[in-house]
């Protein structure tokens, strides 16, 4: 699965990008500042949107995905360094980042609770933590449909949990949610948080 998925990732994302996802990415990324950590950078879809930041350290556990991000790094307006690492075990010191960005990635993280703890650890007090994630839809019928589809979806799309309650996970984490915007009947959420440790 790990070998073929990076090859089809950009094609798989095209339908999502057609429904304004790139605009939503840009809107959330413009709220980042200072030294930025990006969780699960994939093929670098966010990289061209970084402007008013010092630098981006991006983590991506799949080296094949990272290799595909080279053209996006070339389009970036800021320095970007990719680290081969998992969100549950970040290779950075405590209280290091001013902002953290995660877009369409928390669905695939095996231990999202641990990843949220690590994000809190490496971000400074008062750091902004910004998410754009698809989640289990609040409508009963649509949510149940996601539950039914998820086992096959997860095997096909690199571990993606189509029905993950990422907002619920963040609510139970040490981060404080400051704003939530919902799109497409609750399928996509833009979630702004602060690390108020």
Automatic annotation (TrEMBL):
A GO term, aspect molecular function: methyltransferase activity
Stretch forming the signal peptide: none
Residues in Methyltransferase type domain copies: 37-131
Keyword Methyltransferase set for record: yes
UniProt KW keywords: Methyltransferase, Transferase
CDD domains found in the cross-reference section: AdoMet_MTases
Gene3D superfamilies registered for this protein in UniProt: Vaccinia Virus protein VP39
SUPFAM superfamilies: S-adenosyl-L-methionine-dependent methyltransferases
Stored PANTHER family: METHYLTRANSFERASE LIKE 7A, METHYLTRANSFERASE LIKE 7B
Name of this chain's protein: Class I SAM-dependent methyltransferase
Organism for this UniProt entry: Planococcus shenhongbingii
């Amino acid at each position: 699965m790990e070998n073929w998925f990076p090859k089809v990732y950009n094609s798989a994302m095209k339908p999502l990008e057609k429904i304004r996802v790139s605009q939503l990415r840009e809107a959330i990324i413009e709220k980042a500042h200072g030294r930025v950590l990006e969780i699960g950078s994939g093929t670098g879809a966010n990289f061209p949107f970084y402007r008013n930041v010092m630098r981006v350290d991006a983590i991506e556990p799949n080296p094949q995905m990272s290799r595909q991000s080279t053209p996006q790094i070339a389009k970036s307006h800021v320095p970007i360094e990719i680290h081969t690492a998992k969100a549950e075990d970040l290779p950075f010191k405590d209280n290091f980042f001013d902002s953290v960005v995660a877009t369409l990635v928390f669905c695939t993280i095996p231990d999202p609770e641990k990843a949220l703890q690590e994000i809190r650890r490496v971000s400074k007090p008062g750091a902004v933590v910004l998410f754009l994630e698809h989640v289990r839809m609040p409508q009963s019928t649509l949510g149940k449909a996601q539950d039914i589809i998820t086992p096959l979806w997860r095997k096909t799309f690199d571990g993606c949990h189509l029905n993950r309650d990422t907002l619920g996970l963040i609510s139970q984490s040490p981060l404080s949610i400051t704003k939530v915007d919902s799109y497409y009947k609750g399928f996509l959420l833009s979630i702004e948080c602060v690390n108020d440790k």
